[in-house]
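INTERNAL TRANSFER SHEET
From: sequence group
To: structure group
Subject: Class II aldolase/adducin family protein

Please process the attached sequence and return the structure record in the designated field. Keep the field labels unchanged so the import script can parse them.
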Amino acid sequence: MTTSYPKIGGNGEANEGRVLLSQTTGFGKPAGYDPIAWQARCDLAAAYHLCNQMDLNEGICNHLTVMVPGTSDRFLCVPYGLLWDEVTASNLLMLDESGNVLEGEGEIDATAFFIHAAIHATGVVCVLHTHTPNVTALCCTEDFTLHMCHQNSLRFAGDVAYDPTFNGLVLDREEGDRLVKVMNGKRVLMHANHGVIICGDSVAEAFDDLYYLERAAEVQILAMSTGKALRIVPENVANQFLVDMKKDGGKANWAKLHFDALKRGLMRTHVGAKFCQ
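Return from structure group:
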């Protein structure tokens, strides 16, 4: 276990080779920058803005990451200290699997590195860790189960892992690896006394799950507040719901349409439009 709070990034000697990106406007990109990698930057920055807009984050804490397209050992994350509506495509940091900053200026929160590096090492493309209000509220109850009582809940049937062990801040790779083992390949982890981790094949799919998981938790909490028993959807109906959702790539396509619409909404606001700069 670590004896001091780790620093990830910053101005250490190991990061002397980093690249600083010039800020751009609109949907442009720095000259010569790979367009697919730039799109990943834009999408992740948009997710930060959307979480801020929807009150799905806490201050400058929590963290969202995505693997750099075409790589298996580097990912993008916000430099620690920015408000989430200050995040842009160009000010995101690119880190390697050892925590060296390859592009950008600043450092990331150590908890972000140790959680996300461990999960990305398993091949996950996008990892979102937040303390969304309603999911986090469920994680603070003795039985912090997402019950299959609503259509939105069914999206996650059989794909939620539950971690009853809260060890405080994640400040070493050992705890990151422990979280990976608890997740056991599932795309959602509800962490007792803490919050949620969501994994996806793209920023769009992970954000779509983050959004609908929060709505599912909100409905469940409202239903529980009546003091009446939850009405659970029969297992056969829940299973068929998942089959229907996945037909012809439906779920991934719905997520893309949803995320594209939300990005258009950001572009109509003075602050939100900065995400792609």
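Handover comment: Helices lie at 35-53, 110-120, 133-139, 151-154, 173-183, 203-224, 235-246, 250-267. The first strand starts at residue 8 and ends at 9.
Transfer complete.
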